[in-house]
Every structure is written in C-alpha cells, then in structure tokens.
Write a structure and sequence with these properties.
Layout lengths: L4 H19 L3 H14 L4 H18 L4 H21 L4 H13 L3 H12 L22 H22 L2 H14 L6 H9 L4 H15 L4 H21 L4 H13 L3 H12 L22 H29 L2 H8 L3 H8 L4 H17 L3 E4 L11 E2 L2 H11 L4 H8 L14 H20 E3 H23 L8 H4 L25 H12 L3
Antiparallel strand pairs: 1-2, 1-3
Helix pairs in contact: 1-2, 1-3, 2-3, 3-4, 4-5, 4-23, 5-6, 5-7, 6-7, 8-10, 9-10, 10-11, 11-12, 12-13, 12-14, 13-14, 16-17, 17-21
Length: 520
C-alpha cells in the first residue's frame, strides 16, 4: 500500500526541519530529531538517509576524541543506509555512503562488496529522490546528479583504500614522534609497498624525509627535500585528484625555490573537479579542518591560495639578494623577446603583440583612436590623433556626430544664453571637457595591453632565475610548512547535551538504545 501523500509531505517537512537545525549549527538537536525519524519511519529512505548522513558527520567529528561514541554513530549510520538500500537498491550515492560507514567500522570486506554492487548498477536511481536538497538548488539534471553520485563512490573507495592502512600510518608517525625520524626511516617505505593504492601511504616516506630535514645543515636540507620531492612526484602521478599530495608537493617546491613549478601545482590543484576527500590523505592524521567534505575541500583550496601569496613574498626576499646585473636582466624586456616567448604558449597574446609591433613600426606610435560608429566601413579604422578623428566625424557622420558622442556621454542640455555674460565661456569650457572625455574613451594604447604580458613574463623569468641559482640555500621547512591545527577537539553528542571528556552523558546511551530500536 502506497504511503498517504499527506504523511509523505509531513515527513519531508520534519526532515527538512532537522536538516535546518544542523545547518544552524544546532547539531545535537538535529541529530536527535533525525534519529527519531529513522526509528519511527524505518521504511522511509528519506528519513533513513538523513539520519545516516548526520551520524556520519558526527562520527567524523568524534572519531579521534571519542572512538567509542564515534563507533556507535557509524554503526547506526550503516544500519540506516542498509535499510534504505532494501527500499531503493539502485542508488549509487547510498551504496557509497553505506560503504563509508562500513569502512569506519573496519568491515572492509563488506564495504568492498557494497562498492562493487554500486559500480555494477546499470541504471542508477536519481539520488535527489530520497535526499534533501541534493543538487536541485543548482538546477542540475538527473544525469548530472548521477554523475555526482559516481564521484561520491570514487571518493568512498579512495577513503576505503586509505583507511585500511591508517593504524599502520599512525604507528609509524608515533615512532617518528617518540624515537625520531632517523630511527623510523625504513617503516614508511615498507608501508608504501604494502599499500600502493593509498595516497597517504605513498606520502608517508616523503613526510618522514621532511622531518629528517629539520635542524640539518642547508646543504643536507636541500638534499633531503629533493629526495622527498622525488617521492611525491611519483605519488602525484598516481593521485592527481589528491589536494593533500598537491599541497605537500607545492610546499616542497617552494622550499627548494622552484616557485614556478609550485605555482603551476597550485593552479592545477585549484582546477581539480571533485577532488579526493582531504581527510583520507592527511598527515598528521586528523590535521584537515572541516566536518563535511565540502568544508575540507574549501579549507585546502584556501591553503593553496595562501601558498600562492607566500610565493610572491619569498620571491621578493630572493630578489633582494640578487646583484644589480641580474635584476637589470629581468627588468629589461624587449618586445621582440615577449613576442618570441608568447608565440610558443599563447596565441591570443602573440597576436596582440604582433599587431602592436606592426602598428608601432608603421606609425611610430603605440596608440590610436577609433570611430564611435563601430559598424560599416568604419569598423576597425584607426586614427593617429584626435584632429583626424574629429575631421572624420564631421565629414563622414555630420548628422550622427552628436548622437555618437551621446553614446559615450550623458546628454546635457544647456539653456540659450547671450554672449555678453560668462555663460557662453562656461559652456565652451564644458564642451571642451566633454570632448576630452570622449577622446579618452575612444583611445586605445597597445602598451596598456602589453604591460600585463610583460609583467607575467618578468615574474616567470624571476622564478626561473631563482630556481637556477645554486647559490641560494633552500628555505627551512618551518618557513614554508606552518603548523596545522587539529580538528575534532569538541565532541558532537548524539542528543541535546554535549558530552564531557569521557563521553558520559545520556546522549551516548540513547544512541545505543535507538540503534537497538532500528530494526527491519
């Protein structure tokens, strides 16, 4: 028997109210309501998925500070997703979430089975049908939403691959902290061999190299950092969607004064669509800030922007250490050199410079004026001075002269005035000002188009000169790698009240009770 429409609408309204509480940062209350809905409406995918999603967000928040509570939340989420799949077995998004919950519980074989089943779905269901606000606010189509679900599945599988080695990574990091990086140098390499599909495992040897470089001599630091960079180059080729790998690599390049490559890596990473979840690749563990995927990605993208800004400051310091001859070579740029450079990389820029060269050599000038009437035989016609422009307007467009002027300027009516007073002189002065304004709007100076291209070329040459200068010592690790604050310092309880440090509060018991009540 199909559910009554009024009941469906009422359930959706209650689910939307719970989600609204979550977005208003009333997390405990939202989680409690969502769990109540899942228990009461245990055949509704809408209620079950909402409860599963909010429990997994709470799990991510609590997993490092209260493993027991986080485990119960992941278990409740897995039960919700499984019951939802019993009703809607063709939802790739729910399978991905189910696999993530199972991964959190360490049930890797069952998680892999869920991922395999999701990948085999021939005609996926619209994930928005049973998820609140899923892509519909942006006007996406069903096909686009299904692609979003497949991207979620890919990220879930990546999280699975990294979760399997998380305990081993934690053990290595603990050894680095307690006995030093030199004593733990062999463990990361073995771990990377054991888990080739884990970005975190592949980055671990480079991280240990980074720790080894701290406090070393400048020459030893540069050598160690280059070894770490070689390791990351391999990882970057295999995990091109990993923002953590890209950020680590960009910072290492900055340490070695290769600002151009660092900037390229930042730009590439910022352009990655649907990147891997940064929380699956972070080292140290738990260092990425953000409770939800979008928050974590946003946090990493802000860090890339910060690195780009820092590159300019670092280059400025290197610039000060250069001799005057090198500085002069960078500052002095011929237009022929610019043309040669951009002819290899940018056709539009090369065309602009070619036009400028032809014009300047023919007329010994960089600027020209254009007719306000840009259509017909006047299109593209250039005038070398304002006198020839005015002559053209008067001869070719006498009836349209003022109309053309008014296309640039607001028309202003002046009352008739005698020539005896000062009104006539004021009008003449005002007309002259209007003409000057018109000519400024009509002029084009090639130098204004070329200067930004010249600055970009100079910036590139500066970065190249710095990278090739072997006399410049590598930056210290502390100068580039800022300390990362740890997320997850506050618990999210399952109920209205916050938990104490030991997780002792009625909320955690109610998670257990509700999990027991959630049965098919």
């Amino acid at each position: 028997m199909a559910p009554d429409l009024d009941d469906v609408l009422l359930l959706r309204a209650e689910a939307e109210a719970a989600l609204r509480l979550h977005r208003e940062d009333r997390r405990d209350e939202a989680l409690s309501r969502a769990m109540d809905l899942a228990v009461t409406h245990n055949s509704s995918p809408l209620a079950l998925i909402l409860s599963g999603d909010l429990n997994m967000i709470a799990y991510c928040q609590n997993r490092r500070s209260d493993a027991a509570l986080a485990g119960r939340q992941a278990k409740f989420a897995a039960a919700c997703y499984k019951m939802s799949l019993d009703v809607v077995p063709g939802c790739v998004e729910t399978f991905a979430a189910y696999g993530e919950a199972l991964t959190a519980l360490g049930m890797y074989r069952t998680a892999w089975d869920a991922f395999t089943r999701a990948a085999a779905i021939a005609h996926p269901a619209d994930p928005a049908a049973h998820r609140l606000g899923y892509g519909r606010s942006s006007g996406s189509t069903k096909g686009e939403r299904v692609e979003m679900a497949k991207a979620k599945l890919r990220r879930a599988i990546d999280c699975y691959a990294n979760a399997r080695c998380e305990d081993a990574v934690a053990e290595v990091l603990g050894a680095v902290e307690h006995v030093g990086a030199a004593s733990a140098v062999h463990g990361p390499a073995k771990l990377a061999d054991r888990f080739p599909s884990s970005a975190r495992a592949q980055c671990l040897p480079a991280y240990v190299c980074l720790e080894l470089s701290r406090g070393a001599t400048p020459a030893a630091t540069a050598k160690t950092l280059r070894r770490a960079l070689a390791m990351l180059d391999n990882a970057a080729g295999s995990f091109d969607r990993s923002l953590m790998v890209a950020l680590f690599r960009a910072k290492l390049l900055a340490c070695l004064h290769d600002y151009d490559a660092a900037e390229v890596e930042c730009r590439r990473a910022l352009a990655v669509d649907n990147p891997d979840d940064p929380a699956a690749h972070d080292i140290p563990l738990g260092s990425v800030i953000g409770e939800e995927y979008d928050d974590r990605v946003s946090c990493l993208r802000e860090q890339f922007i910060d690195v780009q800004k820092k590159l300019v400051l670092l280059a400025a310091e290197d610039w000060e250490s250069m001799n005057c001859e090198k500085q002069g070579e960078i500052l002095s740029v011929s237009i022929d050199k610019l043309h040669e450079h951009y002819s290899k990389i940018d056709q539009i820029a090369e065309s602009t410079i070619s036009d400028a060269l032809r014009f300047s050599r023919r007329h010994e000038s960089w600027r020209f004026w254009i007719c306000a009437r840009s259509s017909g035989h006047c299109a593209g016609k250039k005038f070398l001075d304002t006198a020839s422009l005015l002559d053209h307007l008067c001869n070719k467009h006498p009836d349209e002269l003022w109309e053309n002027l008014e296309s640039f300027l607001d028309p202003k009516l002046c009352e008739n005035a005698s020539q005896d007073g000062c009104s006539f002189d004021e009008a003449c002065s005002e007309m002259q000002d209007l003409w000057l304004k018109f000519t400024k709007l009509s002029v084009f100076d090639y130098r204004e188009a070329i200067m930004p291209l010249a600055r970009m070329y100079q910036w590139k040459e500066l970065k190249k000169c710095i990278a090739e200068d072997g006399s410049i010592a590598a930056w210290s690790v502390d100068a580039i790698f800022a300390e990362v604050s740890h997320a997850g310092e506050e618990n999210v309880s399952a109920e209205h009240g916050s938990l104490d440090k030991n997780g002792h509060e009625s909320g955690e018991n109610q998670v257990t009770n509700k999990s027991d009540n959630l049965k098919t």
